[in-house]
Amino acid sequence: MDVTLTNSLVTRNRSGAGGGVVVEAGGFQNETVSATFDHVIFRKNHALTGGGLYTADAQVLVQNCTFDGNTARDPEVNFRSPGGGLQLGGCAMGACTVVNSAFVKNHAVDGGGIFVFGTADLVNVTASRNTGRGGVGGIWIDSGTVLNSLVWGNRGNPRDVFAFTNADLDHSDVDEKSGPVTDLGGNINANPLFVSRSDIHLSPASPAIDTGTCMGAPTTDFEGDPRPTGAGCDMGADEFVP
């Protein structure tokens, strides 16, 4: 079964799992569920888990999407409240990918921006100002790759990235991280200098400009601007255009 949602706004919904959207494989034997989300805004949705989007046992592609102000919280059982913006569950190797997407001001007990149970690739992701109430503020990932991404200015413990099994960090700007994180090179630790607290576009002085890698990066950014536009590809969802 294939599910596709494009060019949509999903806002102010409430649910037990997946306040905005739920994609979950059913009980049919050998059922395969493939879901694609492209140019979708998830804004101010609320759930006990997966505030904006919740997926389980599915092949998932999230690209060119924005997760803004979503919340995952169970006031009685906090450990059931991961993934303020997005929760990806049951991701087999290569089955879940998040590309060219921004996560801002999402809140959860753990994984305020993104919570990945299984293996996922996160490519040109920007995660900022997300909050983990006692857990990770930015990205909680079981295993996978964080490539060309900006994870900065989140609040939690740690603030930005936690790897449970192992995460490969490649040409990314991450402030605080913990767990078994493998540095593949090209990584920096510097304020990305967004345009403002409310605008995650890169300012002209950003150290993320031209310091990413074009290998594996999408050819446009989350708004359709060509990548690269300068001497090299930029880190994060936004490609700086002079």
Structure description:
0% of the residues lie in helices and 48% in strands. The chain has strands at 2-11, 14-17, 21-24, 34-43, 46-49, 53-56, 59-63, 66-68, 71-72, 86-99, 102-104, 107-108, 114-123, 126-128, 131-132, 139-147, 150-151, 161-170, 173-174, 177-178, 181-183, 194-196, 199-202. It has 242 residues and is mainly beta. The strands form 3 sheets. It has a 16-stranded parallel β-sheet that branches. Strands 2-5-9-12-15 form a 5-stranded parallel β-sheet, with no helix packed on it. β22 and β23 (199-202) form a beta hairpin. It has one domain (2-202).
Radius of gyration: 16 Å
- Termini separation comes to 43 Å
Low-confidence stretches: none
Major beta-sheet overview = 16 strands, parallel
Strand content: over 45%
The number of helical elements comes to 0
Overall helicity? under 10%
Structural class: mainly beta
The gross shape turns out to be: globular
Oligomer: single chain
* Series of secondary-structure elements, N-terminal to C-terminal: EEEEEEEEEEEEEEEEEEEEEEE
- Provide mean pLDDT, rounded: 93
In total, how many beta strands? 23
Number of domains: 1
Question: Which short descriptors sum up this protein?
Answer:
five-stranded parallel β-sheet; 16-stranded parallel β-sheet; 242 residues; mainly beta
In short:
The protein has 242 residues and is mostly beta strands. It is built from no helices and 23 strands. It has one domain.
